[in-house]
Amino acid sequence: MSGPAAPSATLYARGPFQAGGVVVLEEEEANHLRVRRVAGGAQVRLVDGRGGIATARVADEQGVIAARVVATTQVPTPPATELLLAAGDRERFLLAVEKAAELGATRIVPVVTERSQQVATRFQHVHVEKATRRAREALKQSGAAWMPTVAPPALLADALRQAAPRTVRLLADADGGPMPALREGDAVLWAVGPEGGFTETESSALRAAGFRPVVLGRVTLRFDTAAVAALALTAQARLAAHHHQGSTP
Q: Which distant-in-sequence residues (6+ apart) come within 8 Å of 217 by Cβ?
């Protein structure tokens, strides 16, 4: 006996979703269905990037491609995992956003640093919308329920003033120590510098703000690779905490 049919596609749509409701799909998502030749009545998975997930069926509503919601799920808010990432080369930054979405980042702040300002192809305010679209595509591909927000670029001093309190603050630093143990629900804030690293003045400001230097590897990493490594370490530390908690009598 066969089980339920697998969704033909995962689509982004604005929530919240309600069983029995009809969601009109954005043109980009509707075009995705046309390209894949997904027929009316086919089952699809909807995600809104805010924890909402729905099983739905493709419908034609007066010539408009829509999805009729069959069932919904709301995934709880994950622990905060924020990234202050130097606004270096935009293509590398966009790749970092994509991978950060897959690894569970909840917010990404492009940080304007002394060295990143010297990069002609640096990530700027006009690129935020494109970064958000990349995060959305990563959300759909990865099967995640929550999508990171991408903030406008900010000066490091401003980003530090706006940083949430009561977070585990970590600084990617070649001279740092090992990754500390985390509790599964700990909020984490990483600072990852540009090519060449933060300047001494910037590093001092980060340490004064409570950032703990952590080494990510034995070789020099590009800023986008460092962001991926930092988030992977965070995910692993949380998994270790979860398994330890589960094995504690």
A: 229
Q: What is the pLDDT of residues 204-234, one digit of tens each?
A: 999 999 999 999 999 999 999 999 999 999 9
Residue 83 tokens, joined: 């990234």
Contact 249, 203 (CB under 8 A): no
- In total, the chain counts a number of residues equal to 249
Which are the contacts of 55, defined by CB distance < 8 A and separation ≥ 6? 7, 43, 44, 45, 46, 69, 70, 71, 72
What digits encode the pLDDT tens for the residues 79-119?
Answer: 999 999 999 999 999 999 999 999 999 999 999 999 999 99
Domain locations in the chain as residue ranges: 10-74, 81-247
Phi and psi, residue 23, nearest 5°: -110, 120
* Cβ count near 22 (within 10 Å): 13
Write the CATH number of the domain with boundaries 81-247: 3.40.1280.10
> CB atoms < 10 A from the CB of 153, how many?
22
**Domain 10-74 grouped into CATH 2.40.110.10:** no
